Amino acid sequence: MKLFKHLKKISTAGLFGSALLLSACASDGLIRGTGDMGIVIERATGSVLVVDNTKDETITRVNGLGDLSHASAVYSRDARYAYVFGRDGGLSKVDILKGELVKRVIQGGNSIGGAISQDGKLVAVSNYEPGGVRVFDAKTLEMVADIPANDGSKTVGLADAPGNVFMVSLWDDGEIWKLDFSKGLTPAITKFKDIGTNPYDALISPDGRYYVAGLFGEDGLAKLDLWNEAKGVTRILDHYGKGEQKLPVYKMPHLEGWAVAGDLMFLPAVGRHELLVLDKNTWKEVGRIPVHGQPIFAMAQPGGKYIWVNFSVPKNDTIQVIDVQQLKIIKTMKPGKGVLHMEFTPRGEKVWMSVRDENRVDIYRTDSFEKVGSIEATKPSGIFFTDRAHKIGL
Amino acid sequence: MKLFKHLKKISTAGLFGSALLLSACASDGLIRGTGDMGIVIERATGSVLVVDNTKDETITRVNGLGDLSHASAVYSRDARYAYVFGRDGGLSKVDILKGELVKRVIQGGNSIGGAISQDGKLVAVSNYEPGGVRVFDAKTLEMVADIPANDGSKTVGLADAPGNVFMVSLWDDGEIWKLDFSKGLTPAITKFKDIGTNPYDALISPDGRYYVAGLFGEDGLAKLDLWNEAKGVTRILDHYGKGEQKLPVYKMPHLEGWAVAGDLMFLPAVGRHELLVLDKNTWKEVGRIPVHGQPIFAMAQPGGKYIWVNFSVPKNDTIQVIDVQQLKIIKTMKPGKGVLHMEFTPRGEKVWMSVRDENRVDIYRTDSFEKVGSIEATKPSGIFFTDRAHKIGL
């Protein structure tokens, strides 16, 4: 990959096509483990950077992924292919080893996220337009199932669960659906109705047991225990919001991630400048932590005692780090304007941060908070490392 | 890899050297993701099989690893290199992509296990002979630190912890040592003394917080909270064993693995035909589950509600599956004689089992318990998939 490095200085984004890489096909560059790789979404240019989180550098850029102004990604189980879900309904399959766009389909008009099945064979996409969920063969990207929602409801919070199951929430209809593909390509669908008004996102616990949807239209969150489905959906934190003045919501927080440390779980409050702290065992609120702004992501550092939080505009130049034993902010950092996303290295020794308006991804040590690297990126947003391939619900 | 497959039928173990694979160097075979790969230890022949857990097949065999009659392995952070710790003190670095033994050093006389540091740069080995811990550069296998134990005590339960720390227990001396490499190659050593007689193995919790050593010489287990080291080591389950008749111990159980499901933790009892069930939050025993024999491994299925258990001789032809909600055995299987180890695929849809005396590794679905595959292997024991690269304490 020496060639690439040499060219980097004089190149434009468009130069980094697959042709360059293919010419190196017989070289050692493509024979490498994929365990320390990842992608960075470049939201304005429809491109992704393929990155190396051992050397903290960019390997190549892949173009032509369409509108990535809101995008997320999952990985094949061999950690070679990234499936990127774009705002424009595009589903792109990227070969991160060859640095190639393998295939791209426009599967809907406006999509919000996706998931890959436990066995790695199915990729599901949740759509705002036309609503519902569409499911694709992970190899070919051919559509294998189309699951329309009632009246075209927008779907959110799509996540995989054990047993080749996808869980999804219906924004317009206030429902949670379980799509069970364990018996083949025609899913058994279980519908949980009246779960609350306007679920806006959801998470699944790392053990695949709980699916929890945040509600925008009313107080509390909707929780489903997948080990005891017959008990249905129950409300948790139903006091949350009551009697308090609502703040304008600049950006919806993300729930995906399950920020659990010990017995505590940390959730970004909607519209408020605080994190909610729950007891993971009772699902009851045990505290709130005042933070710098409206939190977007609250993420538990792997193997660490810290929760890292970023914020919506106009406070999105800041990161705060919370010690989970003291329940106190122990560090406030200002990486730059537009800190849109963070990703930890798999065992948590470093954290990568997209600083959109500075066109950089900064890399910090998590023990000393020292900045140890930085890579150039055009309006970077989501960062996705390949260890996600092996995790439930990510 | 077509060539390899064709040859497989007529070959002997020795034929599968690196030369064959190197000749295919320019082919697509070596350009692949490493997320769905792994190795199987062949304990009698000093070899490992490199395997693919998507296709459920063998890719190649690597020979020349010495005495693997008791062996374990860890992975580089790029999931390309396996470090194999052999009984004879050998430390072998295997390139699983090229199917090559990259390097092998005899670092001690009798070794029992090893670990890789959080940053992936250091590989540590715990020794019975000459005792102590030796630490090697992960790239070159050059020794970078030699940490003798008091009077040459055997060391056991070596595990990595966050902050480039290795934890280890001293069998002869009843101590736990923390070896902190965060500041460089001369570790800061913290010694916890009088933790109990003859710690025989240990585990670290997946969040890197707790280090727990089993005691062979007295009742209970020794627990250290690494977030609150000043509180020292405390005893848990100190009633465990008291007033009960000891059974002969055919084989020491392994603790590595942290079988946690929900709030419960499952530990194999030493010498007894039962699993101990602990409340993970209080560390108190909440029950025991009678099982078929002396348990060796009790492993939580990822994303599942089951604990899988194998047994020591003479009951080592059996596997039992425990439902963690009912705390009951729901399945007893007889895969064959010498079921030495199990490994789950990263998201838990399948489990691989070494059936030593049948020279097979069998592959089962975890939802239906249906056997879906089998590969030939010579006296297989430990199975290690590459997702371990991304986990603390494995």
UniProtKB/TrEMBL annotation, chains A, B:
CDD domains: 8prop_hemeD1_NirF (cd20778). InterPro entries: Cyt_cd1_C_sf (IPR003143), Haem_d1_sf (IPR011048), Host-pathogen_enzymatic-act (IPR051200). Keywords: Signal. The keyword Ribosomal protein does not apply. SUPFAM superfamilies: C-terminal (heme d1) domain of cytochrome cd1-nitrite reductase. Gene3D superfamilies: C-terminal (heme d1) domain of cytochrome cd1-nitrite reductase. Transmembrane segments: none annotated. Residues 1-26 form the signal peptide. The keyword Signal applies. PANTHER family: DIHYDRO-HEME D1 DEHYDROGENASE, PROTEIN NIRF. This is Protein NirF.
